[in-house]
Write a sequence for this structure.
DNA sequence: TACCCCAGTCGAAGCGCTTCGACACCCCAT
DNA sequence: ATGGGGTGTCGAAGCGCTTCGACTGGGGTA
């Protein structure tokens, strides 16, 4: 392995000069700079990451904590991860992958051993045991999602309350008077996951505001569960004509189930999903949806982190406004007697 | 931050003694050992990762290169990643996440800067530009998938040739005489991706061996593409009664398409998928399938890597035997005149 | 009793880099 | 001519750890 001393010797300068050429932290004459750069190239020099980290107290590595838990929708996670890695690389950082089941200890481990300079933590629960740890850690972090008590933290998320509300508004605008939210598996709610809870809130509040009926039910991923859940829902609330779905993997089978139960989409039943755009577009009929801008959130998270690392200030909470795209799965509510409306 | 010197002072020993207690590389008296361990706990000492890496020439970090390319099936990737991280942690290693679009340079970067000790590279193409780089790198690597020329490499994969053959055998055993392979998007084949190519080979060879008709077609992910592909397939080969599907995201819509085209599964059309078990089980009818043991492959990859790091020997190529689970989607071929059989 | 060996511990030398202070040197203002 | 302030470069210290060689003392052997 070629070291900075080799480069220095080759270029006929001191090692510190090579370092300053590389970092640009002191002015170096054009002549010397070019000579050094030539030597770097000639020898194929790559600074040793550990030595650099040890001397500079900066590892240039970010930790990314991703959930690998039941009920989480994987492709969205992956989009996040991809965006985080790509953006981190733009800022000359690498990404260390941690799974959530290392828990708070895992965060302490990588932080206190100076393995990483900062952390991105996904899938924050409303009352998350990692939050107090994050607060005490001697390094910046950004949460994707946000807990009830977000004091002293930097959080980024889609505004799921608004997302839930948008869906209701969209359907109410189309004349639907009785709606249901078909949510994530119940485990996700029990875990007090922010995005699920907040969508629920947004849905319920908007339903009340609009004076429409809004019922909510979790839904597991198996076909039988979907069939059972939807059948029961429609038995108990036969007048439901609008469905909001926040549960990406069930979307395909759900369309099937509705067909089986004799409800045509959108003629008998309008559907709005909260999911990635490509999933919505792949269905037949294409789904009206509020998209989840995973890439933008991941980007934003890394950018905030880099800003914090450089001593800058970032907003405590960044809520991205949701956007609803109307496609084929939602339309005017079926005609009904106006006197009852 | 508390350093090893602090611990040494607190325990009344030399820093080197603390180091030996922690690493176990020299015998330390029970008395001293316990005293040191108490001090470590009392002070909450965590060794500095960079210092350790610099001194020991070991970062205890593995690189994981995952594809984030078009047509790749994301949940399977994620399962790999999860298995790799989990197993790496078991061996006290962390995982640095790289995306394939950093290309060969990315591998050189992390390797030559000693950021990592070893690499796991996924989604290897038959003629992969990263392979020569990997061969020259001064550290061990394990490939998931394998190129045409696997000389000097360590590769692990599901035996996709056998997987393709198993599917044919299963259907042929049930009396089907005309089969089709509904494959991945054509981009995946064009990229010369190993698993897709090999499945194709296994399928074609087995079809010939069994004396059945076997046609193959790639298939994109959109509903329209699926509809078009299947319709054309059945138009051109109306006698097809068995379908092998290697394209996880289209499975849901495919069942839909078949229904729409008036083919009942399994009565008119038997189906075998190559996909994760949970996906197969979630469908209606449940799919006969060859499962992709992502977790086992990930585990195995890390274990081989650790063995290599410790100077041990590992087989150049590990092919995991595929297992086919018969479920509801495949059955005896429809009755036909025996004289033509 | 003299010797050797081993278990247990220490001190010091690095690992490869960054960064601080010091030092030339040159140019400009006096 | 002389002093002052940049500019460009160097040397050395030090980041926190591992590891090597050396040292000490006690127990066994001859």
């Amino acid at each position: 392995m070629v070291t900075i001393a080799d480069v220095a010797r080759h270029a006929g300068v001191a090692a510190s000069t090579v370092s300053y050429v590389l970092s640009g932290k002191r002015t170096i004459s054009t002549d010397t700079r070019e000579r050094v750069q030539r030597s770097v190239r000639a020898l194929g020099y790559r600074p040793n990451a550990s030595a650099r980290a040890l001397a500079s107290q900066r590892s240039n590595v970010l930790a990314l904590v991703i959930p690998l838990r039941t009920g989480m929708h994987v492709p969205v996670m992956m989009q996040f991860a991809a965006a985080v890695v790509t953006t981190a690389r733009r800022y000359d950082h690498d990404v260390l992958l941690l799974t959530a089941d290392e828990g708070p200890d895992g965060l302490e481990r990588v932080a206190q051993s100076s393995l990483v300079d900062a952390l991105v933590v996904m899938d924050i629960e409303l009352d998350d045991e990692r939050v107090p740890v994050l607060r005490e850690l001697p390094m910046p972090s950004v949460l994707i999602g946000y807990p009830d008590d977000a004091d002293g933290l930097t959080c980024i998320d889609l505004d799921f309350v608004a997302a839930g509300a948008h869906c209701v508004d969209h359907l109410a605008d189309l004349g639907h008077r009785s709606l249901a939210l078909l949510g994530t598996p119940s485990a996700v709610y029990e875990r007090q996951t922010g995005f699920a809870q907040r969508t629920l809130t947004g849905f319920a509040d908007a339903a009340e505001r609009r004076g429409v009926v809004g019922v909510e039910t979790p839904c597991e991923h198996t076909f039988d569960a979907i069939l059972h859940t939807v059948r029961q829902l429609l038995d108990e609330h036969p007048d439901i004509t609008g469905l909001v779905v926040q549960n990406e993997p069930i979307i395909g089978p759900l369309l099937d189930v509705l067909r089986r139960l004799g409800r045509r989409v959108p003629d008998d039943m309008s559907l709005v999903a909260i999911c990635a755009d490509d999933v919505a577009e792949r269905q037949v009929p294409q789904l009206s949806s509020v998209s989840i801008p995973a890439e933008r959130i991941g980007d934003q998270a890394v950018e905030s982190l880099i800003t914090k690392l450089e001593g800058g200030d970032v907003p405590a909470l960044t809520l991205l406004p949701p956007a609803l795209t109307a496609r084929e799965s939602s339309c005017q509510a079926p005609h009904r007697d106006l006197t009852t409306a």
Summary: Residues 13-17, 20, 26-29, 32, 51, 53-57 of chain B lie near DNA strand C (CB under 10 Å from a C1'). The two ends of chain B are 79 Å apart (CA to CA).
